[in-house]
Amino acid sequence: MSSSADSTEPSTPAEPLMRLGVAAMDRKARSRPMRNILSRLLATGKFEITVFGDKVILDEDIENWPVCDFLISFYSDGFPIDKAIAYVELRKPVCVNDLPLQKIFWDRRVVLQILDKIGVPTPARLECNRDGGPQLDKGIADQIQQSLGVRVDKPRPTSDFSMEDDDTIVVDGRKMHKPFVEKPVSGENHNVNIYFPKSKGGGARRLFRKVGNQSSAHEPDMVTPRTDASYIYEQFVDVENAEDIKVYTLGPNFVHAETRKSPVVDGIVRRNTEGKEIRFICQLTDAEKKMARDISIAFKQNICGFDMLRAGGQSFVIDVNGWSFVKGNDFYYDKCAEILTNFCLRKMPSLPKPVTEEADKPREKSWTLKSTICVARHGDRTPKCKLKFKFKGRDVWTKPFIALLQGRTTEIILRDPVQLQYVADASEAASILPGADLEQLEQLRKIIDKKKSTIGTKVQLKPSFTDDVCDVLAIVVKWGGEFTHAARYQARDIAENMRKDYTIMNKTLLDHTNVYTSSERRVVATAEIFTTAFLDERERSPAQKQQTHQLIIRKDLLDDSSAAKDEMEKVKRKLKTLCRPGLHVRPEFAWPVKEKDPFEVVKETIELMKSLRATMHENWDTLEVEKIQPRWCCGEYPYLFRERWEGLFGDWCDVSLEKFDPSRVSELYDSLKYDALHNRTFLETIFAKNGSRPASIDSRSPVDAPANGESGPPRQLRELYKRAKLLFDLIAPQEYGIERSEKEIIGLLTSLPLLEQIVRDLQAAQASDYPSANFYFTKESHIHTLVNLVTLSDLPIVMPHVPELDYMSYVSFEVYERSKGSSKELSVRVTLSEGAHSAVLDASLDAKHALQVQPRRALTDYISLPRVIEILQRHSKKADQMKLTKSTTKIEGFLPVEGDEVFRGQASRMEEIRSFQVHRPGSVYSAGSDKGE
């Protein structure tokens, strides 16, 4: 998994490249901050970089690990640190951070003892030992004693612990009064409690690793400290501005610091659109800079992070974290690359002579990224809206609509305004025939007249036939679902980061890239922008010829089909029972509210919707709505906002509970997310009592307040989002099957052609001598059903549960290769990203309105390529056994027929090649096809 820079030549042609290895778990080694650092190092032309990768680190003997001159290696969950230490002893690279000393961070007592020794202030503390003291390797303890003169592994007798009263603890005769902080001695245990005295309300606040947007929770009845293990008790420090300080060192002479809201405040994490906790750069005093220098030197960690508090004119260090990167700061990335480069250059003369050819053979045996196959959902879109009409085909007055089918028996999609008018004309003609449903016909005609000129509007004619007679004709009018400006940023951002990743892992992948897309406008637009950024035109000089990119449109693989229509209708009928009273949700469903069933949450949601509708109507009558939000995007304005929400209110408030349609959950959740991103000011103002301006609109005050109505979004709006999310997580994943058998058959009918194409790509990677990258852009239905087919297979699934698959979510099949003598060995791991997902009401926004795509995580463990192919091919065999021939061909008859083919004789093709040029390198363009959504 190595790459060297070739866009920038080394300063001296004969100068050998410095070999930098990265031995850390993939989720860290291939993270966005690490990619930014490594890309800058490559750009210097001085490095060859090898990311070892999980496959090498976990499965290979250290003798087969790549040989390098310099090593970046650090511990995280699952990392075999002892194995890495043995590798360092074997190959003796220069380590950026000392590896053995990283074990110090596993015990807070040892960290604090070293901080005491080097004179770094910490809060007053008591130690309650129940485990005999720190369990540290003798060699590490000896090293610390030699360098710092302190013995950190001395046995510690069991402490005498008692409570003098509800507000006072006594440990080995020493007292501490509340408030105090209770920390487990294990540095990997982040379940910290803060206990408050009765005079401050009592109880405690539990701190924990961030879960979503929550980092702590108040526990009013928690009074007594834990007695099940060893703990450290620190006197609580009442910090300035309710902020912590995160400090990052780059060697002993450079330090960067940022403030963040303390988790003690309310436990709600402030996030930016990248999903990262909001922080502000702050300046350190000379004394604080000296503390940073001393910590970096004492712990022998050039790149190191620690937490600090300021109070009463003093600074206290409360934790040292080891390897830590600043996120999203280009100045820091530039400085880090500069300092690392200089560090390596200084150390070069002291390196041993180049290893012999025999010893260097592990480089040839290392696993290299050979191929990637990625299936991605499109980027952010506007909410989809629809009206559905059902007419009985045997009624005389429906003849004008039956005539639109032109004798066809399959679904027809009309997109052209002229063709949409045909539907309105048919409505007019039907209205004068005997028995006509005038109310429905008038509603259909009006919506066509209103929306026929709106980009992306379409009408679906869906007939159902029995004995060659049309029983039912469903007419569905759809609009919305358009590509947004946020989607442009998302597509470009993920492409640029994938490009950086593959440039580091194996740059030749970029030379053999294919991009496939469905025919929908928003999907084509996503694919175009992705391709432009992934194949980075900015690297071309102005004199070079403009490159023409190609997208391959594959309707048969990536467009929606009606093949699974009947099975999905059966599932929808079953889903309605999920929201009936008395239903107990099955354990495998995502339902965290044990004390309530979904029916109760639906009722609460309806009551909230009724209240918010009244609030909106009141504010509409009393406020100057045109002035609430001066700038609108995505072609919206106040009237369209109201039209969309009136439709939602009607769906939720104006139907009986018995007739409630669970599919409305997705539409509500969709609109809430969209307006929270694109119309935050209007959303929060129009749904606030008396139209008050919400505090969250302040640029430095994100939605970080508890749901008490005092600040942030209106309380009822937050409560509505919470319930919509609960119901969405329950219902949306089940739309593609509740039982295993349903998930399988819907998956086969929807995505088997795509899965078989992936298998062919895997076989091509096995046979080919060169690397390749294949990208497939599609819609939500294909992502869900493809992931279902993977998780239902016998592949070794390691992800506990599949998350919400939001815009730009993607599943990736990565093929790794290594040589074994004259033969080759190939292995595959499947990874999954949940896409651009965040709790949007708690995201602080900028003008892009774009949530960042979340990093991919392992969906499966590594497994040999032949085994993966054999397992995935079982789905095809299962389809044959079930005689699902309609899903193993081009799906003729199950893809909708375009109106142009019906009325203009322009036949649709299953595969088209779309070419486009980049006219301004590095910019972002709108894109689309003549196919709406």
From TrEMBL:
One of its GO terms (molecular function) is inositol hexakisphosphate 1-kinase activity. It catalyses: 5-diphospho-1D-myo-inositol 1,2,3,4,6-pentakisphosphate + ATP + H(+) = 1,5-bis(diphospho)-1D-myo-inositol 2,3,4,6-tetrakisphosphate + ADP; 1D-myo-inositol hexakisphosphate + ATP = 1-diphospho-1D-myo-inositol 2,3,4,5,6-pentakisphosphate + ADP. Residues 693-715 are annotated as: Disordered. GO terms for cellular component: cytoskeleton; cytosol. Gene3D superfamilies: 3.40.50.11950, ATP-grasp fold, B domain, Phosphoglycerate mutase-like. Keywords: ATP-binding, Cytoplasm, Cytoskeleton, Kinase, Nucleotide-binding, Phosphoprotein, Transferase. It is found in: Cytoplasm, Cytoskeleton. Residues 227-323 form the ATP-grasp fold RimK-type domain. Its EC number is 2.7.4.24. This is Inositol hexakisphosphate and diphosphoinositol-pentakisphosphate kinase. It comes from Rhodotorula taiwanensis.
